[in-house]
Write a structure and sequence with these properties.
heterodimer, A: 298 residues, 13 helices, B: 698 residues, 23 helices
Chain lengths: 298, 698
Amino acid sequence: MTVEGKIDLLAAPDRRAVPGIGFAWLRRLAPLLESIPAMIGIALILFWVLGAALAPWLAPYPPNASDLKALAHPTPSAAHWLGTDHLGRDILSRVLWGARTVLTVAPIAVLGATAFGSLVGLCAGYYRGWIDLVITRISDIVLSFPVIILYMIILAMYGSSAINIIAVITLTKAPIIARIVRGITLELREREYVAAAKMRGESALYIMLVEILPNARGPLIVEMCLRMGYTIITIGVLGFLGIGLPPPDPDWGGMVKDTYGMMSVWPHMSLIPCAAISSLVIGFNLLSIGLREIGLRD
Amino acid sequence: MTDRETPILEFDGARISFFLRAGEANVIPGLSFAIKPREALGLVGESGCGKSTVALAIMRYLGRAGRLTAGRILFQGRDMAELDAAGLRAVRGRRIAMIYQDPMSSLNPVMTIGRQLMEVPMIHEAIGADEARARALAMLGEVKLPDAAAIFERYPHQLSGGQQQRIVIAMALIARPALLIMDEPTTGLDVTVEAAVLDLVRELRQRHESAILFISHNLGTVAQICDRVGVMYAGELVEEGTVRNVFSAPRHPYTRGLLDCLPTLGRDKHSAALRSIPGQVGSPLARLPGCAFAPRCGFAEPGRCTTAPIAPRELAADHRVQCVRVAELPEWRHPPGDGGDDRGEATGPAALTMRGLGKIYHQSQGVFGGGGRSIAALRDVELVAERGRTLAIVGESGCGKSTLARILSGLQSASAGTVDLDGTAIGDLAIDRRTTALKRRLQMVFQNPDSTLNPSHSVGYAIERALRRLKGLTAAQARRQTGRLLDTVKLSGDFARRRPHQLSGGQKQRVAIARALAGDPEIILADEPVSALDVSVQAAIINLLTEVQAARGATLVFISHDLAVVRYLADSVAVMYLGHVVEFGPAAAIFAPPWHPYTEALLSAVPEPDPDARRDRIVLDGAPPSAAAIQRGCPFATRCPRKIGAICDDTPPPEQLIAGTHRIACHIPAAELVALQEAGPPSARPASTEPVDRVLAS
């Protein structure tokens, strides 16, 4: 039954029902252009996405290159627009390259959490009974665990790498997504179109993924935006605690960690990466506010 | 127009628009009417005709997007637009009271009924708590709620829908308003409860001086409550006059159309197809220059009807019509009525046989399923659906008719008894255990047009998917057949590309029928397929179902709460009450005495849009008892107006075979029932409190 459902899913896109989706989506997103928070959010996100994508061309220096001459005067100057850090590395270049790390790790982690959380939430809401009970209890346990300590244990055991960070974030954010999807599924499973699907003999997997999940996309997208913001903070915190990505790679959290001791002398060294984190987080939060405003729900 | 009194409410060329992103939606282009003191004016029309906008505009509740762009709305001679916030507060609730459709959302769930009632005079008239309490208790008595003191301490969720609506009416009248606005006050209620609430409103009208603006889509309720009626179409009053003038000699084609589409008691599918109004109400974003109804009107004449706004004409004293061709229209006659029921008694072979069918729900209360109680939704149901004919199942909400449909469809399985489909027992065969061949034979049309189609899928996908799953067609074959199915339900082929949000309610229901037909079913289950639709659309869907059924020789199991629709459509009828079938038989027999006392009450409660048809009604007390209560005797005993004594409470009623397959479950012998029912309705029983639920412990 499972295999059958999967095949059907793969077959779905060639049907003429599907091409309409793109256009319908764009039309429904159009009101976003009128929402001021959403536009500010989109602008902030686009700024960092472009910066990250074009870092090799935009960054004036390689991210790890030390300019020993700048060590005496690390403050912003014509050569180094945002100044350099305590090792003489150009902060602008490091922030741009740092955006690359954040903007690859965070979306992958959030997508992972969404995919995993949705699946688990769908099962809980659709099957109910003991499956629901087990899933919600496990979610509660994960959610009640102090997240930072969990990270430290896991990363201490398996070492810090991008993959491990993604895995840990996926596992700890999934319960939040699962809870939302479960709630929506509990409501949608009673809809008549679900009954109609059962009456033509669709598999449970088909009903969950094709009949229910697409109608949860509105709240899901809002939630993904919010989770992006929190994930970026989490990555920053990990970097700050020194259990983020391994050192040579520029990482916003790591940049703050390396320089916050010099805060009273050269505040720009840690304030600039802080501002980078904040602006990106605020960008995603504003976008989620905008999305919620237009109510991308059915 | 000899009355020189100032009208209570006057619309003077009011033009109301909503300003949306898409532009100005001119919902009301220019409305003039007046309500005199102590008068009740009804506003009728399909949904989207601006009826509720009128009600909201009076109270200045149009929100940020809505505005009165021209004209005036005068309340007791004062322009409502000139009132400031304090002035509005003084008018709202005190001088004008409003009753909405859903009583539950009008009541505060965390306040006792008593406090909510007392609050009204305490705020508006600054009287003391003791006086307010006395008035609230008196008011509860007036709306005929038994045991006012007990109700006083209850919370809204502890009352039934009918009781809640009575409380809302009490709250509206306690401030002695000059104008009472009722917006679909009985739409969500069961027909017997509706009849009781309407009776109450009629009675209170005589005692209280309030003028009433009564908004309803149901012509029957308007005919019973109002003195005058205004028919609205696309924000315009197309016909206005006394109830008698408008309903017995309608002049506007729209009014006639509305009356023609009603399946009034006394018409059936063999005498004539129902007439429906084609199309749907136009968008207020793009108003037509001439008559708004012209695109749907059979009498429209290009040029005369479509160029300039139509001015209302005075036809007789108090009868205005907004139609240029009014003088040329043929005389209207009541749709062909009862020419005797020619539905034969001949019984066909059985397609579905239900024997001793029962369904018990276990409500678990603890996390681990401990404790809880059992609810019997169906008890011992014995029914036969004959091949190629229509079995209708009627009853009020909670009678088990939808549970029955879900068992037949396999979405739930029976706890007891059997359902036989040509030798296959399907009663306890859940849908995922049925073979594809069996699934094909029995398909279902659902109730709610807004949830029957998946908003994420196109119409084409929905139908193709059904064709592929049930018939095993390839994508290309399914695509071809989709066009044919859409044609069967009278939709053009390009509907395949549309999405549900682009369709009207009637169109969605057509797609749902097409989807159900995909597997060429022998049995079509239809669970209230027209109850959420406007009357004009309802007629078209009923005609479609009849047609499809006749063309395919399918058996239709039609579940409904609407006796008029059932009478029109059914070959045999089962009347259900609290999980029991109280009466079953050929349609002709069901609609003639002897009746089960419950059938009798249901029939008498149907509001007819004929002001002369004021039959003596049987008003049932209270609400049905909880299905969790243990029943020893007759399920209807607690509300039965013809109850004969303790035997009704203690002994299950015998099944009396009247003639052929017609049977009634009642203690009163059939011959005596006929005599009693021909003598007239029973005298009302003294009001009693609702029975205390005796809960089954499990």
